[in-house]
Amino acid sequence: MVNKIRSIFYKEAITNNKNIQANFEFIKAYQKELDNLVKMKVYNPKIKIPKGEVHKDEIEPINTTFNIRRDKTRKARIVCRGDLQSESSYSNIETSILNMNSLKMLLILANNNNLRLRTLDINHAFLYASIDENFFITHPNDSRMVTPLHKALYGLKQSPKRWNDTLKRFMNSIGMHDSVSSHGLYVSKNGKVMIAAYVNDCITAGQDEKDIDSLVSQLQHEYSFQIIGTMENGKLDTNTLGLD
After folding, report:
1. Does position 51 have pLDDT exceeding 90, yes or no?
2. What's the predicted TM-score (pTM) here?
3. Which residue among 15, 25, 122, 230 is the one 20 to 30 A from 75 at the CA level?
4. In this structure, what are the phi and psi dihedrals at residue 242, rounded to the nearest 5 degrees?
């Protein structure tokens, strides 16, 4: 089940919000998002450049969205306005993603061979990917200033490709490879463990729990994630990678 009821923007959440408690919760969520962007080196808050000193095509507009969850908690996300992105700021943005048929094949193999499954949710996936372009965003603490953007912030047209390429390089570095016919479905050289990756959602499969533990351990050295499900009594959460 999706754990949110609606999304709103900064003006409604903070600027014009007269509910003191709600306003406080939104500000806290916003600060948490800023802290995470700094932690993941998306931008350096100490660098402030006057907007007039940067070409306008290099400045990517940003927005802040807030999700109000069913449990009443708030989550903020700062995103780029990809719909306003200059065409000169990107070229090849096509990327191959996991085919649902490949995922179904993995689940069939798991069912027929009694494989053990584990599902993972990588936190802030795109922010692990660096960008090559010379981009700036409005400084979150000073709208008169801009600051260099270093990571594939959500909303940039090239962010999905940057993340997929980053994940693929890491998977290859630990001996996991996909194929032209099954992008996003990575298999170990000995064939003992597999992992299907769709954006930030992953599902691992293997005959031996130790093989899965080893893969998960390697992932933990590179990414922060949550283990959100395991195979229990031959059943897995039906929302796996968006399947219902």
Report:
1. yes
2. 0.87
3. 230
4. 90, 0
